[in-house]
Amino acid sequence: MSKFRLTLARRRGEQIAFQHGFDRFPVNPFSIAENEDILVEAKEPGVEGVSGCIVFNDDGVGIIYATDIRSEGFRRFTVAHELGHYFLDGHPEEILKTAPVHFSRAGFTQGDSSIEVEADHFASGLLMPSRLVRESLYTASVGLSGIRCLAQDAECSLTASAIRAAECAPYPMAVIVSRGEHVAYGFLSESFKKLGRLRFLRKGDLLPETATRTFNRSPANVRDRRETCEETTAERWFAGPQVALDEEIVGLGRYGFTLTVLTAENLTEDLGEEEDEEQKLVESWTPKFAYGR
Ligand SMILES: [Zn+2]
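^ inputs. structure came back:
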């Protein structure tokens, strides 16, 4: 799966949101489906782990999302994911090769099928276009509380918002989702990558010995959605430089996942309003940051 294709999928999602008149949060995937004459229904999934499906019939297109999804944010993400299969080039053809219906497991946890990953990226672009995400991040505090504001504005789950925040953050931010002793996935902001030489964490990697790993040793922390904050370094997490970071940790509940947000707050003050200006700032700080400590 090329990164380029995922970027294209995300941009297509952003484009569809704007074409349907959404230039502020929240973007409503249900009304986009309605505008396209796509019928959306909630149903019993019947198959475990399935978040929804899209049906291409002779008389039209239908989207179904699973009734056992409790979170409104994840329902919206699921419908947006199915819209990805409708709007993304090649998806209907790929699906129709085997059957007129495609079952999805939305939500960035399945890295196996290319159309699933693309549809997830489409959904995150549709619900959280880059420009709106940046606007939201500018007006909020850095780190987990900024991600919570974004989740509220965009009406998306905390995890989906954290991933988008890391992709768009104008300051060094890393987001890691873990389960037990292992990394489920991680995203680093562009300026975080410039902190220095970093070892990337991949799906299935052992979590480094960090406060997150300690937190995960107690399942009640995760299940009861407890929250804690510790100090850490880029060295401890990524075998990178000795840069101090805040490690904010929150349990995500019954599925057993934990969200960790790493930020370096002292590097994020006085960001300019203009994106270009701010990008220049980040770039001019980065060498000092990487070598000056
Ligand atoms: Zn799918």
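The pocket of zinc ion is lined by residues 81, 85, 102, 104, 116, 119 (CB under 6 Å). Confidence is low (pLDDT under 50) at residues 269-274, 285-293.
thumbs up if we can close this ticket
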